[in-house]
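ugh ok so i messed up the first submission bc i forgot one of the chains. this is the corrected input, ALL of the components this time, i swear. 692 residues overall. if the numbers dont match what u have on ur side tell me asap before i send this to the collaborators (the ones from the other lab, u know who)
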Amino acid sequence: MAKENVVVIGGGPCGIEVARNLRDLGYTPILLEQQSELGGHLRLWDRLFPEGVEARKVLKELTGDLKGVKWFTDVNIESIQKSRKGYTVNVDTGMSFQTKALVVTTGFKLFPAENKQEYGYNIYERVITNADLEQYFHTRKDPRIQNPKTIGFVHCVGSRDEKACNRQCSKVCCATAVKQASEIKELFPDAIVYCFYMDLRLFGRSYEDMYLTAQRKYGVRFIRGRVSEVSEDIDGKLFVKAEDTLLGKPMKMKLDLLVLMTGILPGDSTKQLSEMLKIQTGEDGFFTPRDTILEPCMAKDGGLFMAGTCTGPKTIPETLSEARAAAIQVHKYLSK
Amino acid sequence: MLYKGKQKIWADYQKEIPDDHWFYVRSCIRQNFFPASEVTFLRILRDELGKDIYETPHHTTCGGIAYHQECIPQETQMTIIARQFALMTEAGYENYACSCITSFGLYCETLETWHEMPEVLERIRENLWKACRREFNIPKYLAHSSDLVYKFRNEIAEKAKYRLVNRYTGEPLKVVEHIGCHYAKMFPSKGVGGAEYPYVLVGMAESWGGNVIDYPERRHCCGYGFRQYHVKANRGYSISNTHKKFESMEPYHPDFIVTNCPGCPYFLDRWQYVIAEQTGKTYGGDGQGIPVLTYEEMAGLVLGYNPWDIGMQTHQIAVEPLLDKIGVEYDESKKYLGTGGKPLPEPEFPMNIRCC
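and heres the new structure output, hopefully the right one now
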């Protein structure tokens, strides 16, 4: 008997893990990814907190065993029809897929740092993002990073910021900042590294150790306060104004490098899919599951499932756990 | 600095500025500090460009100075603005242009308040009717007068007699542009170029041959800041702000500063004298200061107007070194002659800053 198809939209770590688990449960997952490679943001990251595991190793592990998964890259969803039998997913390459259960794992996008104009991303050369820094950690090539002696990290860029139209916390940026601050200190031991934060929201196992190590071993200086503006001096150094709210004093400093910890926003395809599939979204733009506590992987419509960061910011382990949970929910639904 | 990044922001923050038929209101401060700037604005718009710019002697202050010093309640200030709009309505205009940056910010704030709270608008209409039996329409377009000069910058460039180029070196003049805080910091979308990298003065300076400097304290207040200056005990803050800006721009050796605010040219100009008296330090070449121009003066200069007709002799910092760099012809002996050649009192020369 032919195995039943299940379409998974989004080929990041979550979509891959859903597909792998569905395969293990006896289905033929059809994984659709709009980028030219599977892996999502994990492809662009160097190491993962808290232990510093190589992102590529994790991705290799995930993608190394896709036997039995039909996956397609460079495909965009054109339309989705719902009928009594399930869903018909039409993609721009002309293919069409029938499925009784549809899993959405469309992930997130990073806040466009240039939208916080006062920080000068794409205006001042030595202002980079957390994603740029991960690329540098991997390639060790970036003309903007030339043996910096003073480095700043700005937390909450585009998160917890009404002005940026995103009130929510992005959950993973504080831990990423602490990780990156320690990593850059390893590379440039003479550098003075500052982290400008509002609150440090580090909540997972070993995260506190990572934070203490950043202070004790690497001497990262944590300053509670926001950066107000960035400009450039005549030598091309960054001139940064901030406030230390614990000391109650404004600060001005010159930095060689400023890293903006861009937050997490709903992915570009979230809005399109929410319209196609009539999935409810919250004020933050992420998909809203049927029940955020008891049924976080299920949409209101039967046969429609969701997992990973399309329902809000998550760490990689949380994403993978949710992917496995979604696969089981699909199996339970199809086994009825 | 990545110029392309700024260009992208500038492209995002453009606003619609009608071509003609404007109701124009002057600034309380500018009429006293640099009265010729507003005359020059009208001369350029009317005589050079043939535009219809209407003004009435019946308009008053917008109430901004009192409002920002918390001397009058917002409702009173909004009623004053409503009366200005009534004058515009009675004159048959829909486009409202103001000379003052603080007025512009206050008009934006008032219109936004009325938009968000229509019940307040109704109350203000009632207030105005009770006070002076006037009615008003909300302007279709609101602009600061620098927006209009920006809009016509290329037409002005075509008519220009001079360019903002150092005739001795052939290099573009180095221009510091200073935007009034109330222009776009409160409502970025209302200003050409937005709040962080405003383009309104950059566009003019670049169109006329200059090269604009981006220096660390570019966004900082000129030092006026209402309560910093008008509350006498706070004047130390005023001059320390100005001092901070000059220290920051000094390494770039600017040829001049251009502003679009009533207070900024005054304080950036006059405090240079005070700083020189207090510290002995000057920021221009050869013991001089850095000339500070209004955008109308900058436009008037490139159009070849007599610098004494556009009020350049009212500046504390001597403008002659700048005129010489541009190649502007002037007669030094006529610097302090008033209307009809009547001699005006000449100022005393300060001790520590050269004024030619």
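quick check: Chain A touches chain B at residues 114, 117-118, 120-125, 229, 231-234, 239 (CB under 8 Å). that seems consistent at least. The helical segments of chain A are 13-24, 55-63, 130-139, 173-187, 207-216, 268-277, 316-335.
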